[in-house]
Design a protein that fits this description.
Number of domains: 2
Strand order of the largest sheet: 2-1-9-8-7
Number of helices: 9
CATH topology of the largest domain: Beta-lactamase
Distance between the termini: 11 Å
CATH superfamily of the largest domain: DD-peptidase/beta-lactamase superfamily
CATH class of the largest domain: Alpha Beta
Helix content: 25-40%
Number of strands: 9
Largest sheet: 5 strands, antiparallel
């Protein structure tokens, strides 16, 4: 029988996770865990700031729902689909490249329209870069970042849209940490972002995630994970709310840096194994 620490103890001591991470020399693996059932936490390298890749699409979704709640837009409003955006580096125009986007469906529909609700879904479940930039143009990047700050989420910044390569080369980038991502998802899980109804809808979208190679990969089928993945260069991340039967969920954010770009399986396997260790400890 596994020994369980008393509830008064504030953190998990996951030595198996620490030892597992220690083997990845030359790589950074960040873990931020918060268990809503016990209130316990576990952190490794949790405050290392990294390029958040597509995990930044979650705060975009939050601002979309905030503006919907405020009556500034309707989720059923239609937006035109276009592919021309302005670089924050120098004001020049750039286009997203279909080959670099995990969702290709919108590129054949330039000039048509789609609902904000569907664009938001594509942004999360298929990680559509084009849908993301269209939504960010509508709600504005400044408002996304301001809402992060208003919620009290520390060490997270969204200052530009996706594939702004001129800005990237100048190191003008979005940033986040595993701890800030767990803090953000904890607020959603507790119904504290916009409203309980908005949080329920955002969780429903996150549960539809189609890329499941990391946090959910080695978990039992009875476990549901509302999550968002992210990949950019040698950054691979997954952040999620993990729902187990008959208890409150736990929040897990995994950020990695340094795994080979041309062999993403290594990063996914690393995160999947950490996720399984944590699941087994919590049970």
């Amino acid at each position: 029988m596994r020994f369980r620490k008393p509830l008064s103890w504030k953190g998990y001591k996951l030595k198996s996770v620490e030892n597992f991470i220690a083997q990845f020399e030359g790589k950074t693996v960040s873990v931020a865990l918060h268990d809503l059932q016990t209130g316990r936490d576990f952190y490794i390298n949790a405050d290392v700031m990294m390029h958040p890749a597509s995990t930044m699409k979650v705060p975009v979704m939050m601002e979309v729902f905030r503006q919907a709640e405020a009556g500034l837009l309707s989720l059923d409003d239609h937006l035109e689909i276009y592919n021309a955006f302005t670089s924050i580096a120098d004001g020049s125009t750039f286009a997203l490249e279909e080959v670099d986007d995990s969702d290709k469906t919108l590129y054949a529909r330039i000039g048509e329209t789609e609902t904000i609700r569907e664009l938001n879904r594509l942004m999360i479940v298929r990680s559509s870069n084009l849908a993301t930039n269209l939504l960010m143009e509508r709600v504005t990047c400044a408002r996304v970042d301001a809402f992060i700050k208003e919620l009290g989420i520390e060490n997270m910044s969204v200052i530009r849209g996706l594939e702004d390569k001129k800005a990237y080369r100048l190191n003008i980038n979005n940033s986040a940490s595993a701890r800030s991502s767990t803090q953000m998802l904890k607020l959603i899980a507790e119904g504290k972002v916009v409203s309980q109804q908005a949080c329920d809808e955002m969780i429903h979208v996150l549960l539809g995630q189609e890329f499941n190679e990391s946090i959910p990969a080695r978990l039992p089928n009875a476990v549901n994970v509302a999550h968002k993945t992210g990949w950019s260069g040698d950054f691979f991340h997954d952040i999620g709310i993990v729902y187990l039967p008959h208890r409150k969920p736990y929040i897990l954010s995994l950020f990695t840096h340094g795994f080979p770009e041309n062999d993403e399986h290594q990063a996914h396997e690393c995160m999947a194994k950490i996720s399984k260790m944590i699941y087994e400890e919590i049970l």
